[in-house]
Design goal:
The chain has one domain (32-174): 3-Layer(aba) Sandwich (Glutaredoxin). With 176 residues, it is an alpha/beta fold. The chain has five helices and seven strands, in the order αβββαβαβαββα. It is globular and about 40 Å long. It has helices at 7-17, 64-80, 96-105, 117-122, 151-174, and strands at 35-38, 43-45, 53-59, 84-90, 111-114, 130-134, 140-145. Helix 2 runs parallel beside helix 5 (151-174). Strands 2-1-5-4-3-6-7 form a seven-stranded mixed beta sheet.
């Protein structure tokens, strides 16, 4: 007996396991050149985070793997908050007040915003959760769709790599 999978189911399985496509940012734009809605209803311009390392977390209140990642994201914020901006972008999760209540219930310590479709298009997000790490120089260091068991370690490694590079540059300049 041969097992047959419906093509849509098979496509769904493939999508979950593939890394995200490269960001679809326009050439002249910074990856952070977009807005989202703050939980108080005001617009938040992510371009104000330019010059900082930023981890974008695309999530939804209805997404169990997204909720499962909250402790890692809180830990990243607590451990690296002086060098890293963690920004949660909630999608398809209701009004900002509902998202705020959900964030409070789950004790999210980092910036949480209601995302706009523009961000999904900009980063070619097709699954939740999805993560995008952006360097202080505006370079996308990685983008990943789906749950990441090693999220903390991957972000920490990038931060440690930047710190090591900066320390090496200072040491090299001191010898001159």
């Amino acid at each position: 007996m041969m097992l047959r999978l419906h093509p849509a189911l098979l496509a769904g399985l493939v999508l979950v396991t593939l890394p995200m496509a490269p960001p679809a940012a326009r050439a002249a734009d910074s990856p952070l050149d977009f807005t989202a809605t703050a939980l108080d209803g005001s617009e938040f311009d992510l371009a104000t985070l330019a010059g900082k390392v930023v981890l974008l977390d695309f999530w939804g209140t209805w997404c169990a793997p997204c909720v499962h990642a909250f402790p890692k994201l809180n830990r990243l914020h607590a451990d690296f908050g002086d060098r890293l901006e963690v920004v949660g972008l909630a999608f398809y999760s209701g009004e900002p007040a509902a998202i705020a209540a959900f964030a409070a219930e789950h004790e999210l310590d980092y910036t949480v915003l209601a995302g706009h479709e523009e961000a999904i298009e900009r980063f070619a997000v097709f699954a939740f959760p999805s993560y995008v790490l952006i360097s202080a120089d505006g370079e996308v260091l990685f983008s990943q769709a789906g749950e990441m068991a090693d999220l903390y370690e991957r972000v920490a490694a990038h931060l440690d790599g930047e710190g090591a590079s900066a320390q090496s540059a200072v040491a090299a300049n001191a010898d001159r």
